[in-house]
């Protein structure tokens, strides 16, 4: 299960109006969540999910251990803005901060790292985390809602 500070961040990144911190190198400019919207839907006919980046050099895809019911699921994206100036030109600093696959509608009950097939949570030492590194994100997190196992 995600630590309280991680859960607070994951909940906040999908809440418009939330200030997530400040722009690196500019402590007076806040990074603020400006929009959360359903951007597409994805068909998952098999119920199996694989997590990976578009860059093959980031390692092997990770098949998640938990299966979801086959079907079509919405994908939400959260955008942040943190305005900045570069060479005299002003930019909004608008970026996609996070995306999530919504396997159920409603409030997230628990955020936890998405375990891949073969991961063994019992083998972790204190302070270790299951996940994978990419040049674009820190890990895959799964949200668990009431009634979903």
Quick recap:
The chain has one helix at 4-13; strands spanning 19-23, 26-44, 50-51, 62-63, 71-81, 84-86, 89-91, 95-102, 110-113, 141-144.
Write up this protein.
There is one protein chain. This protein has 149 residues and is mainly beta. It has 1 helix and 10 strands, in the order αββββββββββ. It has one helix spanning 4-13, and strands at 19-23, 26-44, 50-51, 62-63, 71-81, 84-86, 89-91, 95-102, 110-113, 141-144. A 4-stranded antiparallel β-sheet has the order 1-2-5-8. A two-stranded antiparallel sheet has the order 3-4. Strand 6 (84-86) and strand 7 (89-91) form a beta hairpin. It is globular. Mean pLDDT is 81; it is low at 138-149.
- Computed structural class: mainly beta
Over the alpha carbons, how many angstroms does the gyration radius reach?
A: 17 Å
Gap from first CA to last CA: 13 Å
Q: Please trace the helix and strand order, writing H or E for each element.
A: HEEEEEEEEEE
**Would you tell me the overall average pLDDT?**
81
Q: With helices defined by DSSP (H or I, 4 residues minimum), what is the helix count?
A: 1
Q: Which regions have little confidence, pLDDT < 50, spanning 5+ residues?
A: 138-149
Question: How are the secondary structure elements laid out?
Answer:
Blueprint: H1 4-13, E1 19-23, E2 26-44, E3 50-51, E4 62-63, E5 71-81, E6 84-86, E7 89-91, E8 95-102, E9 110-113, E10 141-144
Antiparallel strand pairs: 1-2, 2-5, 3-4, 5-8, 6-7, 9-10
């Amino acid at each position: 299960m995600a630590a309280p500070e991680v859960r607070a961040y994951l909940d906040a990144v999908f809440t418009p109006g939330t200030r997530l911190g400040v722009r690196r190198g500019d402590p007076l400019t806040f990074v603020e969540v400006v929009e959360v919207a359903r951007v597409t839907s994805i068909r998952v006919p098999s119920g199996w999910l694989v997590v990976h980046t578009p860059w093959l050099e980031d390692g092997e895809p990770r098949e998640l251990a938990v299966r979801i019911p086959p079907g079509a699921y919405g994908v939400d994206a959260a955008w942040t803005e943190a305005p900045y100036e570069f060479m005299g030109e002003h930019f909004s600093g608008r970026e996609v901060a996070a995306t999530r696959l919504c396997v159920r509608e409603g409030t997230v009950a628990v955020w936890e790292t998405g375990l891949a097939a073969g991961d063994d949570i019992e083998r972790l030492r204190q302070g270790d985390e299951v996940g994978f590194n990419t040049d674009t994100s820190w890990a895959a997190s799964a949200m668990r809602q009431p009634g979903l196992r």
